[in-house]
Design brief:
Order of helices and strands: HEEEEEEEHEEHHEHH
Pfam family, one: Band_7
CATH architecture of the largest domain: 2-Layer Sandwich
Strand order of the largest sheet: 3-2-5
Number of strands: 10
Strand content: 15-25%
Largest sheet: 3 strands, antiparallel
Protein name: SPFH domain-containing protein
Keywords: Signal
Low-confidence stretches: 11-18
CATH topology of the largest domain: Tetrahydropterin Synthase, Chain A
Structural class: alpha+beta
Mean pLDDT: 83
CATH class of the largest domain: Alpha Beta
Shape: rod-shaped
CATH superfamily of the largest domain: Band 7 domain
Length: 267
């Protein structure tokens, strides 16, 4: 019995060690929080085992972190306010920059999800994206934005990168910007519709003018050839007269006040 108890000790110790240990997932970095609430500066890399019997481990997703920025209403180059402007930003954190960003930057720059993962600089990136959108949108008229989507995405990304460089945030990389909805204001869309309608009406009138011009040219041509027409009519009448004289045409003369035929019976 004593021997069996001794055999169980390593198993229990292993189970205890595993339950008191946290493994850092792929794409994450960890930081240890000591029992006195201080945060160690050394980053815990993915795959490492870290005891949590004393203190705890904070985890930070650092790869392809997505930030959705929605319902923006930037001002366009034509001074109209966009009805809606949405985009998504993908960014990455350098593993060696995690402790500096978490310890030395304002906690308001970060976000935390329900599982406890902390998204470093998530709120900061969101605000930086907003500022970039409002700056870039001023270069484009509302109705031209969708036609320049790729260029706008590139300019927003470049503006964000410039801001990060100015702030010496070299541990953050903005890898992608994807613009979603870009909707002009109702007034701008209505003006565009009115313009299209006016252009269509103008084209219709141009067609009508061309038709009238062709008809006028036709009538003018007929008037110019009035003598030729009279000559052809006289020729036709002469041919008819010749045919009658030759007995080739049987003619029935009908009085102009002819009202019909009546039966005449002999008595």
């Amino acid at each position: 019995m004593k021997k069996q108890s001794l055999l169980l000790v390593p198993v229990l110790l292993s189970a205890f060690a595993l339950t008191g240990c946290k493994v850092i997932d792929t794409g994450e970095v960890g930081l240890r929080v000591n029992f006195d609430k201080t945060v160690e500066a050394e980053e815990r890399v993915a795959g490492s085992f870290n005891q949590v019997l004393v203190g705890s481990i904070l985890t930070f997703p650092i790869k392809d972190v997505s930030v959705d920025v929605r319902d923006l209403m930037p001002l366009a180059a034509d001074n109209s306010t966009m009805k809606d402007f949405d985009l998504a930003v993908i960014y990455n954190i350098t593993p060696s920059a995690v402790s500096d960003l978490y310890i030395n930057k304002s906690r308001a720059f970060h976000n935390q999800d329900a599982s406890g993962d902390i998204y470093l600089m998530h709120a900061y990136i969101s605000q930086t994206a907003r500022n970039a959108v409002y700056k870039v949108a001023r270069k484009y008229e509302a109705l031209n934005m969708n036609d320049n989507r790729t260029q706008i995405e590139q300019e927003i990304q470049a503006t964000m990168i410039a801001t990060l460089n100015d702030e010496k945030l070299n541990g953050i990389t903005v890898s992608q910007v994807r613009v979603g909805s870009m909707v002009p204001s109702d007034a701008v869309k209505q003006s565009a519709d009115n313009l299209v309608r006016a252009k269509n009406e103008e084209k219709t009138k141009e067609v009508e003018v061309q038709i009238a011009r062709k008809e006028a040219e036709r009538i003018a041509a007929l008037n110019a050839n009035a003598g030729a027409i009279s000559y052809m009519q006289a020729q036709a009448q002469m041919k008819i007269a010749e045919g009658i004289a030759a007995g080739k045409v049987q003619t029935v003369v009908v009085p102009y006040d002819f009202k019909g035929m009546v039966n005449i019976t002999s008595k």
